[in-house]
Model the fold of this input.
Amino acid sequence: MAVASAHAANSNAPEGDIENLTDGFHLLIDALKLNGIETIYNVPGIPITDLGRYAQAQWMRVISFRHEQHAGYAASVAGFLTKMPGVCMTVSAPGFMNGLTALANATTNCWPMILISGSSEREIVDLAQGDYEEMDQLAMARPFCKAAYRLTYAQDIGIAVARAIRSAISGRPGGVYLDIPGAMLGQVMDAAEGARSLVKVIEPAQRQIPAKSAIDRAIEVMKTAKRPLIVLGKGAAYDQCDDLIRELVEKSGYPFLPMSMAKGLLPDTHPQCAAAARSMVLKDSDVVIMMGARINWLLSHGKGKQWGEPGAKRFVQMDIEAEEMDSNVEIAAPIVGDVGSCCEALLKAMDGAGIAPPKEWLDAVNSKATANMAKMDARLRNNNDPMDYHGALGVIKDAINDHPDTILVNEGANTLDMCRSIVNIHKPRHRIDVGTWGVMGIGMGSAIAAAIETGKRVLAVEGDSAFGFCGMEVETVCRYNLPICTVVFNNDGIYRGDGENWGGGDDPATTVFVKGARYDQMIEAFGGVGVIARSPDELRKAVYEALESGKPTLINAIIDPAAGKESGNIGNLNPQSVVAQRLYPQARKD
Ligand code: ADP
Ligand code: TZD
Ligand code: MG
Done:
């Protein structure tokens, strides 16, 4: 029988044996499991504490965090790594709001995730009568996700979960919000009827085959290319069609440039990898094939100095989202479809089309890349005291080369920008970072999800500021005994640790932290291994030991406070007017 109203649920249980009953809690667990979702990233509390307990009792993996934002980031990264929505579960109002940042971040990055939040009772919320943690969560969530649904009756759980999964992973993936009022969880119904109400989602992310006309047009553009380039984005990494991408890149012979989370789709050491000649290929190329990468701020919107002569370049773009085309620049050959299907169609059409890049272009790219790599290599081999970014990252580079199956997580400003360009990645989806927003605090949630979802070792390279946003989750790392080695690049601050108060007052500068902070002691508080590394040699010993032992480890890598640049590689995005130059001798001269 169907349940008529939330409040009636528990008092008016259906007649019959209690053994033949189920409830909202268990229907939700059954609905997730039926659809292959086995893990929940969660922070307990009213009204979902028991939901977590029951899920664990039903052999789901329930990973409890210290803060919902990190549970949410973990769920979104689980979505990126598995092509199935990661699930984050929170309590109402404040817990929900903490999770919402991660939901918005998932949607921005095009990663599938479902935020399930307990909520207060509708009739009280709607009359603003001041319920415990009252908030109209459904309305709040809507602008930050692809879809938002609220459950009122337990009998609708099956259809709502199916809908949420399909919304999250069909088309361009993104975040979905599912609102579960507390009373709904307690509703009971006949177990057999409950089982029948569950829905298994059939092929939620169907292949999107591109139109033949789109492929033909792309081939025509490619035939004209004298200086072609392929740009791989995290949409291509997400698609898990690694062999097809490799085939396309190799058959075309085009140089390729991976965006940060597409690194490893083909190894960074592949002979066609143009990462070390990035500025040159962006500027000088004449035809650019974008594969699952948006032409957004990360690529200077396809305009400006970085891109050479305005209008001199033609773009081919593969994307599952038709509306992405022409977002910043004209796309000469839009191909709407999933990256795998686009590659397959293009590969067929390339047969006999005479597509081969001129040798002069390949030689020019190669010699630039080789020269840049040689320059960089020399800088990485330093044993400077105090340690600088290059000395420390030379060690991280070796560690990943020697342990290529390790997933690298990376955030910070200088710590991010330099690590991205220095450390080679050898396998698809083995680098997770700050994504499209450049958000700080993704590190620990991402590292935890990577360890849980793949069972692999994780190396998290974190700026000290970035780490501060999520550092308490080292307790979570220790509690679940995860094979995560966190290296905090401790330069005493944001960008640099040597800033001063421009007014001359006693307060520290806005960008600096306590000098000589003992981040290594944080993990020791929870039984993990803490190490201080003051030189590349010490760092090498500590990182290799951690990767080999798999023990939860935090290495406090002491970096010269004067080594970093303001905002890393994107200082140009900082606004400033002439007024600053009039008022402050320290102001940038730009
Ligand atoms: P990056 O930051 O690596 O440049 P973006 O996040 O900007 O990458 O772009 C990813 C793009 O990939 C988005 O436009 C998204 O629509 C697209 N995308 C996501 N999944 C797929 C897929 N399976 N096939 C094709 N495109 C996809
Ligand atoms: N808050 C959030 C959520 N995201 C952000 N990106 C920022 C603030 C601003 N921000 C950056 O863009 S980088 C950064 C902040 C605070 C920290 C950089 O310092 P770090 O790295 O210690 O992590 P380096 O190596 O010192 O540059
Ligand atoms: Mg720092």
Notes: The first helix runs from residue 8 to 11. Residues 412-415, 438-441, 463-466, 489, 491, 494-495, 564, 568 surround TZD (ligand 2) (CB under 6 Å).
